[in-house]
Structures are given as C-alpha cells and as structure tokens.
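Fold it.
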Amino acid sequence: MSPRPTRAAGRPAIIDATVTADARLHPRFAIDAHADVIGEEVVLCRALGDISLGGCCFWGAGWEDAGTEVQMVLTFPSLRSNLPVAGVVVRSSARDMGIRFHNLTDEQKWALRKHLRDLQTMTPQE
C-alpha cells in the first residue's frame, strides 16, 4: 500500500495544489455569450461567466444540484449564432455553477471551437 499524501492544515496535499490556467485541458474564455438552461428548472438568457471546449461556468448562486443533466442553447450575440449542447452540472455553490459538456457530436465540437476562435479574433467594434 502506498503512503498517504502529507496533509497541510488537515487536508490532503492534493487539495492544496494550485491549478493554473496552463494546467487545464481546455483554457477558459470570458466572452459575450448567454445560455438557456433546461434541467430540473428552466433558466433563460443567463450570462456565462466563462466557457471552454470542455464546459462553462455561470457566476452567482447555482440553481441545479451537482450531477443534474442539462440541455442548453448557447447564444453568441455578436456572431448571431446559437449552439445546442448537453451537459452535466459538476459544481453548484453559492458562488457559481460549473457544467461539463458531454456527448457532443463532432459538428458541435467544431462549431464551439469555431465560435470561440471567432470571438477571440473579433475587434471591439465588430
């Protein structure tokens, strides 16, 4: 049996490790986008806190429980584009709610990648 990680302040050492943006599989982007979210509740036109190719986050109190499957329509107003996606709530707290995308088709992945790239390259007046 391998030894347990050392603890700092009563917590496993792994929890104290700092995760940087470079360590993420999918970098997060703060962009102009919102979503209609259908889960246990229906929430319309909720602004995204951030988004990546792996999921998105909504700032403010979470309204769904972790583990809840949701259907979303992501809206990118400056691109005049919508993208339906499915996800699972991975974190829900008084501070934010995180959703991991799942079962995306190749077309959805391609569209999301394209929208994120297009939004990053747009000039402010576009």
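Residues 106-121 form the longest helix (16 residues).
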